[in-house]
Amino acid sequence: MKWLCGFANANGGVLYIGKNDNGETIGVKDAETLLEELPNKIRNTMGMVAGVSLHLDNDKEFIEVIITPYPSPISYHGKYYLRSGATNQELTGNALDEFMLRKQGRTWDSVPVPYLKVDDFDRDAFRLFREKAISSGRLTKEDVNISDAELLESLSLTENDYLKRAAILTFHQRPTKWFLGAYVKIGYFRTNADLVYQDEITGSILAMPDKVIDLIYTKYLKGYIRYEGLQRIDEYPVPKGALKEAVLNAIVHRDYSTGIPIQIKIFDDKIVVYNDGILPDNWDINDLLNAHRSRPHNPFIANTFFRSGQIEAWGRGIERIKEECIRFGAEEPVFKSKGCDVVTTFQWDNNVIVNGTKNDIVNDIVNDIVNEKNDIINEENDIIKDGNDIIKDGNDIISKKDMILDAVLQIITKNENISADEIAKQIDKSLSTTMRHLKTLKKEKKIEFFGARKKGGYRIIKKSS
After folding, report:
1. Rounded average pLDDT over 5-30
2. 225/331 same-domain check
3. Is pTM, for the whole model, over 0.85?
4. How many helices (H) and strands (E) does the chain have?
5. Does a structural domain hold residue 465?
6. Distances in whole angstroms, Cα of residue 95 to Cα of each of 324, 410, 425
7. Tell me, what CATH number does 446's domain have?
8. Tally of domains in the chain
């Protein structure tokens, strides 16, 4: 009965009596009696009608009970059950409240809150919303050139004379007065048990993403400094765009009914974002990671963030995080769902700076050692690749190397500012082999590299007359 109740409260389901867990028919005793009693018991205990039928498989009888999803909540002896994945869970507390709201066609953030007026809000969050909405192009100046009360109404954040929970979270200066966990806690850890220092970001959740990212990148993360000409560039192990998208996802889609804040743990080699999040019914982490439609847990909060230009409305948050990491040259984060937690982990190697560059000193030492050690092996592999079985003939190796160097010189002569990648393609060699040839030509002062590290190229050194 509990399982049938769980089916009805979810997306329906089928229960077989007389089959084992492998789907093999093992038969059932008193099938005729069950066929008569089950429909009556289901109707009397839960007030719903089920399809109960008898089947025969290899002279063995089994019963099939079909339950369709019910629009209203179904209880069994005063308790509510919900089928979730492969489990059947009894709903209590916040989970039961959330379930009841959903069955009524409401969401947690749509519930109106009494005794609160627009005059109780300060103006900062409204000003921020207008600025972001206009700059993103989601709304025009004419759209937002209205009173704050009219703005809340246009965002569907009011109901009759009341403001919705979403209005408090997005625009009120102290949402924690109503919802205890409506803030972000950030901590720097040496180990999981060794907290060094921490901060809390409070206030309107509309302003939280920028505040969180600014604090993390100014106080918590170590930047690597490099220069392109006179311009100083700070590089970080995690791209800001990816981390901000992860923070936005946590803020917009979290379960604010738990009273637990978003927690961001920062270590020397990783950032972990913990968020109380409820996946949509019948979803697991794989559904979240693959292409999917937008199904926000807090649709009114999500709509406000969308109108402000901070998120999209296509369910592409995870995809955008991955794309930003790939573009930046950083490792993609790991996403996990543990109980009521959705956990996002960004990890990096402290010896490697993002964008494909290393610490200059470490890079020079390591590359020199590796290149010197592998010179003979790489030259041998290049000769084999070209089909020339002349590994032991030193004169032929030198001759072939000279031919390659001449070819590289001709390529650079015809196309100055050409990159090493493009040269490697044209001479049909690996990038590491091409770099050694370029190094030889640079030592012979025949070519030089100019421009920025990532965007520069090679050119011929012209001899002065």
Report:
1. 91
2. yes
3. no
4. 16, 19
5. no
6. 34, 71, 59
7. 1.10.10.10
8. 3
